[in-house]
Amino acid sequence: MEIQVKSNGYEVPDTRKSVPHIYSALNENSNGVYTYIEPKVIISSKRKWKKKLRLCVTLFLGLIIGIGLTIAGFQIFGPSSPPSPSINHYDNFESPSGNKTFTTPENYEFRMVRCEIGNIPFKQKFLSFSVKACSDVYLVLTSKYDDEGPLIEIAIGLNGNTRSAIRTEKRGTNIVTFTRSFLNCRRFTRFWVSWKNQIIQVGMGLKENNREFMMMMDDRKLNIVNIGISTGRGTTGDWLFVKP
């Protein structure tokens, strides 16, 4: 609403101060005419805000209930927990029977295991173990705590699981060889190793001197202090060291 008043020399009251809730501005135009402009008044409806608030609360509660029902349904109808792995699936953990188990990767790199298998094999100079692999498993008897010093390497399942050997270096010359397939991709094969009186012996089974198939004399008089295990040529291996 606009109201025009001509002053004719009279003082026009400042309506912005007297009735500010009705008029918002007093503008002076030409010819002494003053224009009063009534502001637009926006009245917010409390009912609309209440409806919006109720809608937000309803949506929030519905979301919470939906999430709760989803979780409850998954727990009731979801897949059951997988069974515990069998002993040959452990990786560097103590199996339920107390035996030590390991998994070696495809690359030829030795993992030293003295800390896990303990000191008894080194006092007895005898070790028994089981291994599951398709081919190319290696065990080293080392005179140092790593695999860089003088050592004995026992390789089983070479050339596609057709030959085994004893060496005095990693992947060195075969000093002793034996032609036969020992390993199996799906089940464990048991072996034992002895290094008493400078004689290196390798046999099948878990008892010393049982079914020996390789033997070598070693004049270097090595003091064996650690054992390393490895696989190679694209095959992995599961190892189990029997608790003494």
From TrEMBL:
Keywords: Membrane, Transmembrane, Transmembrane helix
A UniProt-annotated Pfam family: Methyltransf_FA
Domain Farnesoic acid O-methyl transferase: 120-243
InterPro entries tied to this protein: Methyltransf_FA (IPR022041)
Highest rank taxon of the organism: Eukaryota
Transmembrane segments: 55-77
Protein name in the entry: Farnesoic acid O-methyl transferase domain-containing protein
Originating species: Mytilus coruscus
